[in-house]
Amino acid sequence: xxWVLLAAVFFLPALVxxxxxxxxxxxxxxxxxxxxxxxxxxxxxxxxxxxxxxEYDPFxxxxxxxxxxxxxxxxxxxxxxxxxxARAERIIASQLAYDQLLVEACHLAGxxxxxxxxxxxxxRFREEVELxxxxxxx
Length: 138
Known about the structure:
Layout: H1 2-21, H2 32-48, H3 58-80, H4 87-109, H5 121-133
Helix pairs in contact: 3-4, 4-5
């Protein structure tokens, strides 16, 4: 029993002093409880903050408009040249590429893309009209 009492007399004040010492910040790093509390508060603040609207690069829209013009000219050239080898396959592939560029342009302009079959001319026309009404030209 005397060993337990001796250990309590010597080690209990050291443990209390060490716990109190942890409350004071050191110049090297903050205490663990402060770091833990800071991360918890950051998580709470992230949940409460309103998300910022994404900022779009205007050069991305310009690049898409330029590519739309190039692909549209390519499709027109294919349609006018009757002696092109594998003309139908080239036209279909070019129109699908054009449709993908239209979808990307619609996302940039905020136009809703409705689900439709690949190569649907009615959906393509609707997207073109919506983009033209928002000032897009190609």
